[in-house]
Structures are given as C-alpha cells and as structure tokens.
Amino acid sequence: MDAPSGPLEPLMPDQPPKSNQPGQPAITALDVPTPEPLEPRRVLFFGKRKSRTRCTGALVEALRAQGLQVRTVNCSMLKRWIGTWGMRAAVRLVRRLYDPDLCFVFFHDLPPDLMEEISGEIPTVVWMEEQLRHTDSSHVDYVRKVRLLCLSTPDLVEAYRRAGVRDTTFSMSGFSPRYHRPLRAPRAQVRDLCFIGGPGHMGDRPQFLAWLSRMHDVEVFGRRDSWLPYLKRFPELRLVGEVRPRRYARVCAETRIVLGQNQTHDSPLYFSNRLFLTLASGGFHLTHYVPGMEELFDRGVHLDWFESREEALEKIRYYLARPELRARIARQGCELVHEEHRYEDRIREVLAILRLERAPYCPVDSLREEPAFVLEPLPPVLEGRPALRKVSGSLGD
C-alpha cells in the first residue's frame, strides 16, 4: 500500500520520524536520555523452535538477511537435556565464547535470572507478539533493562511505557517466504471453510466456530490437546489435525474461505500472526474486523472482514458464490504481504531504531487519556509474599 520506500532518513532535532507502519501515524517522542547508536554484528538469539509458526526461525533468518552473524540458543531444550544448572552454565559459556554485541530474546525464552544478568551488560532486544489480558510486575521487571522492547499491540506499548519501560515500540508480526508461500501448482478446493489455530486463552473463538458449524461445514486445524475441552463442550466442532508450515499453503489452496478470529477484536492494530501466514500462503481470508485494519488492507481487495455473526454469514454466502473474486483477492493479498509484511521488514526497522535513525513509536490513537491498560495494585497475599502489580484491561469476554 502506501509504505515509503528507499533509505531511512536520520532523525533531526524536533522532527518526528517517518514510519512505514499503518496509515503513517504520528510518532510519540520519548523524553529519555538518548543512548549511543548501536550497529550490531554478532547477535545471540534466545528462542524456542516454534515449529507450528516458525516465527523464531523467521526472525533469525531476517537478522541474517541484514548481514548479521546469529548464534541461536534454545534454553528449554538445553534444560531438558542437561538440567537447569547445566543450561545456565551453557548459556554463560556460549555468551563468553561468542562475545555478542546484541542479544535478541523471543518473548520470555531466556530465564529471568539470566535475563537480568545479560540485559544489564549487553544491549538486548525483546520481541513479544502476543495479546495479553494481564501483565504482572514480573513481566515488567523482566524487560526493565532492555535496549528495546518490541510489542505487536499498541495498547501494550502504552502500558509498558507507563510502567517505566520507555524504550518500547510497536512492531507487528509477520512471516518468512521461506516457510509460508503459495503452492506453485493449483489444487482443487475441497472444503468451504476452515480455521487454523488454537482456541486461545480469551475471547469467544470456540463459541463462534461452534455456532458457525451448525450452518456450515467448518474444519478446524489445531492441536488436539488444546482443543479437547472445547470438543467436549461443543460437539459441532470438527478438528482435523495440526497444520505446520509445509501443509499450511496446501490447506489454504484447498479451502474456499480461511476464517480469521483474533482472541480480542477491540485492541487497535493487533492481529494474530495467522493473518499474515494465511495471506502469504495464498489463502482467501475472511476475518473479524480489528480497529485500524483499513489502514493496512483494502477491504475486498486484499481480504475482507465482518463485525458481527450475521455479517459473517452474509459474507460467507457472498464469497462462496464468487470463486473468481475470491481468487483475485487472495492473489492481491498475497502480493501485498510479500511486499510489505515480512519479518525482514520488521527487523530492518528494529535495527534502524538501534542505530537511532528512527525513534521507538506507537500509533497515537492508542495513547488515550484513559489507557486501555492500567497498573493496579493487587491485595497482599498470604505467607508474607509481596503483592504483585498487574496491567489489566477489558479485552472482551
């Protein structure tokens, strides 16, 4: 769409930085001491494998595409192999021998004690692409010393900044063409509707899919253990198995409409990573509306959306009867995300922030007088343990 191209422009005093984020929003300047520009060369990356979405592998690939050396460490796997003590010793040894000038941590995939130790000595970026209902004080403390915190939810950017983590920026999820791309050969479409993903830990995703399954044949692709409680509660749901990257494009090609349903729909510009994976894989995507979606996508051009169950039914009937229109929208949506929404595009912006060519930013629409998330003290708990503080907000049911 209208994202700027060409080299990034250095920031000038009192000049707001440009952004290729949705709708070219204004950027909120941070009144904090300016750190030294950072031009990393060796990155130590901490993250689990994430075999279903391959987002950690995609981030590593994106860092290497920028000319960086990257060494990866999976602390969870090390812990299973050599225990907690051995894992900590191995992390410290790798850090000393590799001598990184930047650490990159996916979500909370580095244990808190090591995070405290490493982020206090080496510039550290933490990447979190998750919509959380509550964030307690341990989450805030975890990122207190980081050089940059990247969040895919503008409301959470605001919350962390209010909690004192000022170097926080908005960065959407994405995808890598290595793992998610359309099939080369066309396939016959064998199903009307499908949903790919888990039931989520909040929102009404299982209820919506069960309701829709009473009128249409909907196939759900996800992990059986996560869906099992809902399969017992909603016998209408039909689970057909997991989808990993190699199968994702095939499912999209064989499905007339791939449904999207975030865990929450009132958090502006927060999208499940499945949106990008589906479009990148060539699927026709019909999803629930999220505020700001029209700043990224043209409705009926790259995908389409609904805002109620009744509208979802109308859209489904409309598009099932128009295969050529579905194919054109799927193609255009695929072209758009391959041009603008790769993880490589996100990492390029992160590195520009570290070089001080851009400032950490957040769409101004999320910076309300009454924040969507506020820090609230919790009542003291028993046995003399200190009370936690949490970031809470109303994100639907």
Lay out the secondary structure:
Elements: E1 42-46, H1 55-65, E2 69-73, H2 75-98, E3 102-106, H3 112-119, E4 124-128, E5 134-136, H4 137-142, E6 148-151, H5 154-162, E7 168-170, E8 191-196, H6 205-213, E9 218-221, H7 224-233, E10 238-241, H8 245-253, E11 255-260, H9 273-280, E12 285-288, H10 293-296, E13 304-306, H11 309-320, H12 323-340, H13 343-354, E14 374-377, E15 389-392
Parallel strand pairs: 1-2, 1-3, 3-4, 4-6, 6-7, 8-9, 8-11, 9-10, 11-12, 12-13
Antiparallel strand pairs: 5-15, 14-15
Helix pairs in contact: 1-13, 9-12
Termini gap: 33 Å
Proportion of beta-strand residues: 15-25%
For the largest sheet, list the strands in their spatial order. Answer: 2-1-3-4-6-7
Shape designation: globular
Fraction of residues in H or I helices: 25-40%
**SSE string, helix = H, strand = E?**
EHEHEHEEHEHEEHEHEHEHEHEHHHEE
> Helix/strand-derived class?
alpha/beta
pLDDT averaged over residues: 85
Biggest sheet layout = 6 strands, parallel
Give the low-confidence spans: 1-21, 23-30, 374-397
Radius of gyration: 22 Å
Number of helices: 13
What is the total tally of β strands? 15
Report on this structure:
The structure is a single chain. It contains 13 helices and 15 strands. Helix 1 crosses helix 13 and helix 9 (273-280) packs across helix 12 (323-340). It has a six-stranded parallel sheet with strand order 2-1-3-4-6-7, with helices on both faces. The chain has a six-stranded parallel sheet with strand order 10-9-8-11-12-13, sandwiched between helices. With 397 residues, it is of the alpha/beta class.
